[in-house]
Design brief:
Order of helices and strands: HHEHEEHEEHEEHHEEHEEHEEEHEHH
Helix content: 40-55%
Radius of gyration: 31 Å
Number of helices: 12
Length: 362
């Protein structure tokens, strides 16, 4: 068999060249990851409620969840953390757990306990633990500009980044949530003979989802929609509060309404300036180098005509560490080739050293 192969050197060289080309192509195109795709058997259940103390958080948020979650199949350890405005539950399963089945069980038990939570509590969030879902690059917008300007630009850039096929999601951080602030003028309220209870009931009645059913005309059936939820600021301005004779008193007649942000609980700075960060998470199995390069390209093109006062930056780019690792790998291979060739040259001569040196990377 060996004699038969050696008698066909062209075939051997052709196969070797094909293998080298295939190896180079695989080396260049294979997905490169900074963190392994490992399913860590840990889930985190997060529940928030504004204004609640750590003691009440344990009694009202943790206790309803505990008996249901402790009975989960394969649960190894249950840890609850009660703090101000928040309760967190860490669920650790056996290492050989079925991730999808465990996640479905956790969601089912959390939904069961949801009815026992206070009405003011936020929707429980279930977070998975996966190292490959760590942001691969963070885009920062900073500068001494109005907060609303920075926030609007960040939202537009976020939509552009999420349109990249290799991006799973892009989350904003360091910003405050927008809201409408309504300041009641008590003098105007008295002048229209409106009590505070009447005003409160008017707002509550008009911000509800009303199931209107359907209308059957005999020729067809049509669903009826009743616009009951606030969808824009104009809906709040024109909210009817009371009817005086032929005049309708709206909320804007008795109050000052303005757009603002929630009170700050933390501050975000980049190089000393206020900043909003966009944390980009790539899809599993995609190339981190290509993904981050596309993110940089989209950001540069989309922000080309932005004001100079808004500074764009990139932090925690994990593709840089990938380049460092690949550089170390290539250096190690070249060093190995050089050292082996030196030894072979000393022992067998230059011709043998060249053949061995070519054989190592091949």
């Amino acid at each position: 068999m060996l004699t038969s192969i050696l008698s066909r050197p062209r075939t051997v060289l052709t196969i070797m060249v094909a293998l080298v080309i295939a190896g180079l192509f695989s080396y260049l195109t294979i997905p490169k990851e900074a963190n392994p795709d490992i399913d860590v058997p840990v889930f985190y259940v997060s529940i928030t409620q504004a204004g609640i103390s750590p003691e009440d958080s344990e009694r009202l948020l943790v206790k309803p969840m505990e008996p249901r979650l402790r009975g989960l199949n394969g649960l190894k350890e249950f840890t609850a953390i009660a703090s101000e405005n928040h309760a967190g539950i860490i669920l650790e399963f056996d290492i050989n757990f079925d991730k999808n089945a465990a996640l479905a069980d956790v969601r089912a038990k959390v939904d069961e306990a949801r009815a026992d939570l206070p009405s003011a509590a936020g929707e429980p969030r279930i977070l998975e633990t996966n190292f490959s879902l760590i942001p691969t690059i963070i885009v920062t917008l900073s500068g001494d500009v109005p907060e609303r300007t920075l926030y609007s630009h960040a939202r537009r850039l976020k939509d552009q980044i999420e349109a990249i096929s290799s991006v799973q999601n892009a989350d904003l951080s360091g910003h405050r949530e927008e809201l409408l602030e309504i300041v009641i003028d008590l003098v105007k309220l008295d002048s229209y003979s409106i009590t505070q209870d009447e005003l409160l009931r008017a707002v509550q009645r008009n911000n509800q989802l009303v199931p209107a059913g359907a209308l059957d005309t005999g020729r067809g059936r049509f669903n009826v929609k009743v616009p009951g939820l606030f969808e824009s600021a104009s809906d709040v301005y024109s909210l009817p509060v009371k009817v005086n004779n032929d005049a309708v008193v709206t909320l804007s007649d008795v109050a000052t309404i303005r757009r603002t942000f929630k009170d700050a609980t933390s501050y975000s700075r980049f190089n000393g300036s206020p900043t909003i960060a966009i944390e980009v998470v790539k899809r599993l199995g995609t190339n981190i180098i290509d993904n981050n390069a596309q993110v940089r390209d989209v950001v540069e093109r989309f922000t080309a005509d932005w004001p100079d006062a808004i500074k764009i930056g990139f932090t925690l780019d994990q593709s840089r560490s990938i380049f460092e690792v690949l550089g170390s790998l290539q250096s190690a291979v070249m060093t190995a080739v050089a050292l082996v060739m030196i030894v072979v040259v000393a022992a067998l001569g230059m011709r043998s050293a060249i053949l061995v040196g070519l054989a190592i990377p091949t």
